[in-house]
Amino acid sequence: RPAAQIRGTSPEAVSRTLAEFGTCVVRKYPERAQVVTRLVVTDPEYSSRLKALADEDCLSTGELSMSSSLLRGALFVALYERLYSSQGRIDFSGLASPDYLKGYTQPLAPEAVSVIAIARLGECVARKEGANSVQFLNSLPGSSSEETLVRGLTPSFSACIPAGQTLRLSRQFVRSAVAEGVVGLLRNEGQN
Question: Which residues contact 67 (CB under 8 A, 6 or more apart)?
Fold first, then answer.
């Protein structure tokens, strides 16, 4: 894919820009993207490796500013597209869960708690709604079909959120969480 185009500030435009940016980065640096998404977020190398992936060549014009969690999510979405979407797998219910705590020290740092919670949430949704999760990941970011699929996944997200907690779901958050959950399950199965 070519470099991302900044399409505006609407949620749909942001989703599309992030997807294009993530796809470009993973296309240019597939091994590096795999490495950084396997690192624990408290690893001293994590931030520097993640920043190194934010390649200016993957943005055609302008300046793109995003949090590390948005970039991480965009990488997982792009890795799903590159490595797993062609497999056609839609049932994740029988796969073993990854060891989300592996590599982290206790007590968990706040950023680790957040990353682990997102991955577990995405895994839970993928297990409950495998076909819809895959269809959602394969939908065009910012499209009306994406919106319909997000609404369809919302009950599963609600069921997967621990009691007493609330979460505001943006399209990008949903896409990132589902991608990280699916990629985590498939990586764990194939150990790649």
Answer: none
One-letter identity of residue 92: F
Task: Determine contact, residues 183/76, Cβ cutoff 8 Å.
Answer: yes
C-alpha–C-alpha distance, residues 94 and 192, integer Å: 18
Is residue 4 classed as helix, strand or coil in its secondary structure?
Answer: strand
- CA–CA separation, 42 vs 57, rounded Å? 27
pLDDT in tens, 131-182: 999 999 999 988 899 999 999 999 999 899 988 887 777 888 899 999 999 9
pTM of the predicted structure, to 2 decimals: 0.90
pLDDT in tens, 68-118: 888 899 999 999 999 999 998 999 999 999 999 999 999 999 999 999 999
* Token pair for 89: 């797998």
> Residue 78: which of 24, 122, 28 has the closest Cα?
24
User: Residue 29 carries which DSSP code?
Assistant: -
Q: Nearest Cα to 60, choosing from 2, 140, 14, 141?
A: 2
H-type alpha helices, the chain: 11-28, 30-38, 44-53, 68-79, 110-128, 130-137, 144-160, 171-190
